[in-house]
Design goal:
Layout lengths: L5 E12 L2 E13 L4 E5 L6 H8 L7 E10 L2 E2 L5 H7 L4 E4 L13 H12 L4 H14 L5 H4 L9 H13 L5 E5 L7 H18 L2 E6 L2 H7 L2 E6 L2 E7 H6 L4 H8 L49 E4 L2 E3 L6
Parallel strand pairs: 3-8, 3-9, 6-7, 7-8
Antiparallel strand pairs: 1-2, 1-4, 4-5, 9-10, 10-12, 11-12
Helix pairs in contact: 3-4, 3-6
Length: about 325
């Protein structure tokens, strides 16, 4: 099918709490092309994971998707019934969560839990399911997959659990794989293995990947295109090379400046002054005002639109309006 795989338009996901309405995702628009590794980067609490859960329609209460469109493969997911979404989750869209320990059932074997998704979504004979699981685990680097599939989650290391969750996500060969902080809490060596694994998954299965992270190094290594998210909004979006070499938004520039460098002498690490705005009381102006060294009067009065500055390079800043 022609056209992008995912086209999110003005998506709004709010949480209705006793303290007020938390605008976790507030007017986000992104387009993910087929076969790409698309990165979303930003500080913790900026709305990245809520965006991922919105795509799957799994936003927990008291959250609610209140506006926008999520066009997946030409169809608006927000118009689907819950029964229709159950057929899409796992089959066409899968997710790898940042902490696999929380999402494996400790009383069932890992192989049994992978098999559950295959039984639900694919017409595979039971006699062939075990063979398919063994092949999948072997392709993801498991030693002795015939033995490992019969073991329980507590018998796996952190890296092996993450690989097993990727195996579960890939068991039905989805078109879109959402990886939500897939290397969090893993040591550096295992992180590199997981990233290499995701790259091989993309090549072997022609899977489109949405990679959510706060690690700019991971984005630079993995992604074709990246969107920078701040306080529930996309503030900049372009191909990875452009964002890293010619960042336009002051927040993107500040994020890159805060990365420690080994090629120059630094007496102290740079940081971004101020605090992220309270998402229950967001001012009707630029959300980065008060922290931005380029702040102007208009920044304290109006919310800058997301505009196309160059071909495919969008930014939300009055410096370019």
């Amino acid at each position: 099918m022609k056209g992008p795989l995912v086209d999110i338009q003005d998506l709004k996901t709010y949480f209705y709490t006793d303290e007020g309405v938390v605008k976790a995702v507030d007017g986000v628009s992104i387009t993910i092309e087929r076969g790409d590794i698309f990165g979303i980067v930003g500080e913790s609490g900026c709305g990245k994971s809520t965006l991922a859960l919105s795509i799957l329609r799994l936003v927990p209460r008291p959250g609610k998707i209140v506006g926008g469109k999520i066009i997946f493969d030409g169809e608006n997911l927000l118009e689907k019934s819950e029964n229709e979404m159950r057929k899409i989750r796992g089959r066409k869209i899968s997710i790898v969560f940042q902490d696999p320990t929380e999402f494996f059932n400790p009383v069932f074997t890992v192989g049994g839990q992978i098999a559950e998704a295959m039984k639900l979504h694919q017409s595979i004979k039971r006699s062939n399911i075990e063979t398919r699981i063994i092949e999948l685990l072997r392709s993801l680097g498991f030693p002795s997959p015939e033995i490992m599939m019969k073991r329980y989650p507590h018998e796996y290391s952190g890296g092996m659990k993450q690989r097993a969750m990727i195996a579960m996500a890939l068991s039905c060969q989805p078109e879109l794989l959402i990886a939500d902080e897939p290397t969090t809490s893993l040591d550096v060596t295992v992180q590199a293995q997981i990233l290499d694994l995701l790259r091989s998954v993309k090549e072997k299965f022609a899977t489109t990947i949405l990679l959510i992270t706060h690690n700019l190094g991971v984005v630079a290594e993995m992604c074709n295109k990246v969107a920078v998210m701040y306080a529930g909004k996309i503030v900049e979006c372009s191909d990875v090379f452009t964002v890293f070499k010619k960042p336009l938004h002051p927040y993107t520039q500040a994020l890159l400046d805060s990365i420690p460098r080994v090629d120059i002498e630094q007496r102290e690490l740079k940081s971004i002054p101020g605090r992220v705005p309270d998402l229950t009381n967001i001012p009707n102006c630029c959300r980065f005002h008060g922290r931005c060294k380029y702040e102007m009067d208009v920044c304290r009065k109006e919310d800058p639109p997301l505009i196309n500055v160059r071909d495919g390079h969008t930014v939300s800043c009055f410096l370019y309006c």
